[in-house]
Amino acid sequence: MKNRRRSVLGIGLTLGLCVVAAMLPAQIQAGADSAPAVLIASSGPVAVVRGGSEIQGTFGLPLQVGDEVKTGEGASAQILFEAGNVVQIGPNSSIQIQGSPKAVAAEPDAGESPAAKRNIEVVQNFIRLKNKEGTSSLSRLRSGNDSQDLAAVSPGRTRIRTARPDFSWKIEDPSTELRLTVYNESGVFWKRDVSGSITMKYPEDAPALEPGVSYSWTLETTDPLTMPPLRSKAVFFEVLSSDGVKALDIALAGISQDAEPNASSYHLIRASLFFDEGLLEDAIAETEGALEADPTNDGLRSILARLYAEVGRPEAAMAEFDRIIESP
After folding, report:
1. Is 130 exposed, middle or buried (0-12, 13-18, 19+ CB in 10 A)?
2. What number of H helices and E strands is found in the chain?
3. CATH code for position 162
4. Residue 168: strand pairing partners
5. Helix (H, G, I), strand (E, B), or coil: what is residue 220?
């Protein structure tokens, strides 16, 4: 039972990623694992010349050696190489993919720089969340979206970096007296009554949450006069290991906002790293930042919608899919 519950989150993420990858167009899937570069942003007329044929340069397109990326009047594009370098192309320009520019180490003989930890496979795996079948995904979300008077929101269906998470929930009347209960593999791990709020930080005097253990939590009303009594669905989370946190911090330290072409690529790469570690809520925050910097990027918006759905926020996911459908 213990091992099964610990693996629930990892299995869910793996299966979800496989399903999404299977839905990608053949153009995106072909050579994605071996591509030395990927198009992470495009604005205006952007084309990729490959094997004598010209294809549209769209967000998330893997680029092969020999591909030529061309921009038209008023257009721009950003290319991420596997060593971590991001190259921006202005209007009426072109660049041919010759391979991966090597990241420069911070010091002589220092080996691979932290920036090179932004492995292109991490970004590509994240971009695979982009779902071209937005309308069908929207339909599934709507059909399974049950309205609830009380819902546990965060942390849910994600890993977290801290052993002192901030819990948040939705309820029509925040003054309702509730009991928040955290469960581990053995049963009830900790509980506390709360009212007059929709958030609570896991207190310092509570037993520490252990890395690598899957926890769940629920909310329920405690006042017997509250009719009908309310109880939220259980949602799961897991604390990232200390080694995982250290590795992530090193990778994040190698990403400088000043070194990136713009805020969108900076947030996109950070979101990819968080997603790779199963930190879905952190990935959501960074994707929101990327989309704020590039609001017309429907590929980013589709990724954000998929992430919202993954963590159990169907209303937010539907709102993003609606924006995609309504965009010109």
Report:
1. buried
2. 10, 16
3. 2.60.40.10
4. 154, 199
5. strand
Q: Note every long-range contact of 136-141, with CB atoms under 8 Å and residues 24 or more positions apart, other chains counting.
A: 137/305, 137/306, 137/309, 137/317, 137/321, 138/318, 138/321, 138/322, 138/325, 141/309, 141/314, 141/317, 141/318, 141/321
Structure tokens at 27: 């153009």
State how many domains the chain has: 1
Tokens of 263: 């805020």
* CA distance linking residue 162 with residue 285, whole number of Å: 16
| Digit-coded pLDDT (tens) for 270-297 | 999 999 999 999 999 999 999 999 999 9
Domain that holds residue 167: 1-24+140-240+278-328
Tell me the C-alpha to C-alpha distance, in Å, between residue 142 and each of 68, 281, 312. Answer: 41, 22, 13
Amino acid at 17: L
Position 133 pLDDT exceeds 70: no
Q: What is the pLDDT of residues 38-71, one digit of tens each?
A: 999 999 999 999 999 999 999 999 999 999 999 9
How confident is the model at residue 20, as a pLDDT? 37
In a domain, 221, yes or no: yes
**Torsions phi, psi of 234, nearest 5?**
-75, 140
Neighbours of 241 (CB within 10 A): 14
Which pTM value belongs to this model?
Answer: 0.81
| Residue 16: exposure state from Cβ atoms within 10 A (0-12, 13-18, ≥19) | middle
**What's phi and psi for 225, nearest 5 deg?**
-85, -10
CB 281 within 8 A of CB 298: no
Judged on CB neighbours under 10 Å (0-12, 13-18, 19+), 59 is buried
Report yes or no on 7 lying in a domain: yes
Indicate whether 101 pLDDT > 70: no
* Closest to 202 measured CA to CA, from 151, 150, 242, 237: 237
